[in-house]
Amino acid sequence: xxxxxxxxxxxxxxxxxxxxxxxxxxxxxxxxxxxxxxxxxxxxxxxxxxxxxxxxxxxxxxxxxxxxxxxxxxxxxxxxxxxxxxxxxxxxxxxxxxxxxxxxxxxxxxxxxxxxxxxxxxxxxxxxxxxxxxxxx
Length: 137
Ligand code: ATP
Known about the structure:
Number of domains: 2
Helix content: 25-40%
Structural class: alpha+beta
Number of strands: 9
Bound molecules: adenosine-5'-triphosphate
CATH class of the largest domain: Mainly Beta
CATH architecture of the largest domain: Sandwich
Distance between the termini: 28 Å
Number of helices: 2
């Protein structure tokens, strides 16, 4: 049977996850990847998305991550993200407000040159992924 992998998820502000887990799926820039114990080491950038892992007790867990990168060693995965929250820490009302704000900016961007549509799209993406995770089980 495969052993556990240590998973660390940190942001500039704080440590979000630091525990032994069984399997990890993470949103790499080139596509989602999975890590079990004993794999070949690699380094990848991440896109905004969901880190899913099965904890030591066998419970499936979900964490929002916004960008950053992941280093996978045979027995340890380190994720450095710009922002991250566990599913249970996501404030759904805040994410919905952020979605509305970003959608308004994108609508306004059609007839105003000073609004940064790329930035608004990234904010909308973060809000929609948070809303999606908050609704998982
Ligand atoms: P907002 O527009 O609501 O600030 P954002 O996508 O711009 O959202 P981020 O820059 O990703 O926010 O994160 C800033 C900080 O706020 C981080 O510490 C992040 O964990 C936290 N955060 C942002 N949105 C939420 C949320 N909906 N629930 C819980 N924490 C959040």
